């Protein structure tokens, strides 16, 4: 019988031309280069599955656990052939390309993968004046196509200022880009399908531009753009303040702030937990685990009650 404990995961660090060093300086992750853009902190995606670091499954990947130990996730429902979610921390030292992702139907029919990509971002840190791209101004598909074809990016793209603690919900079909100086924790469907719309005409050392995917981008972009309305609710549980950031079809995401202690029962199939500030511990069945900024773990199905103590901030999600 599997003894229930939190399943701690080791992040997979990904080099990106727009990446920087904050995944080391802010999160203390071992970065492979000075251009490290992404840490896939809770991932079963084949492009970078996280490894389990404790318990009977230590050394296995999250994908191994999902495939071989479905009981840890109460995996019984339909449409759960692949692990559904992916959590990343992104450090944008430079602007990311402007992009859009397909929905599930388009991803299945055109790309042959199970999931499209709806995502959302919690801004962990942002430099003064940092901006991101969210949505566009075109009122019809014809207008969108004409503005894209004519490179009218300043007219087309909506730019939004952000600061630490902001939350941004990005349903599939939303044109978006994370801007320079922003570190975010991203909760998304487990998909790696991106259609690049605009890359600021940047070239690499060899003078080459990155590939764009304009035809598919035009097909999947929602027109006209409408800002998603998310209702955020805050409740106190012991010394924990829980703020629901979004609850939608694919995921529910919370911000937790703990100053002191809390005891809770797991009442979801499984819970994904990322520590974004502070330090403390989590205890299950009298066994304690140190946690700190940069720790990521899953509370598996059937875990029961758990206690946490410390001064900590988390982003937490479930399906
Ligand atoms: Zn994206």
Shape: globular
Strand content: 35-45%
Largest sheet: 9 strands, antiparallel
The molecules bound to the chains, other than polymers, are: zinc ion
Protein model, in words:
The radius of gyration is 20 Å and the shape is globular. β15 (240-247) and β16 form a beta hairpin. It is built from six helices and 20 strands. Strands 1, 4, 14, 15, 16, 17, 18, 19 and 20 form a nine-stranded antiparallel β-sheet that branches. A six-stranded antiparallel β-sheet has the order 2-3-5-12-7-10, with no helix packed on it. The protein has helices spanning 22-25, 62-68, 104-111, 141-149, 153-156, 214-220, and strands at 7-10, 12-20, 36-42, 51-52, 85-92, 98-100, 119-126, 131-136, 157-161, 167-170, 176-177, 182-189, 195-198, 233-237, 240-247, 252-265, 271-284, 287-292, 296-299, 305-318. Helix content is 12%, strand content 42%. Zinc ion is lined by residues 99, 101, 119, 176.
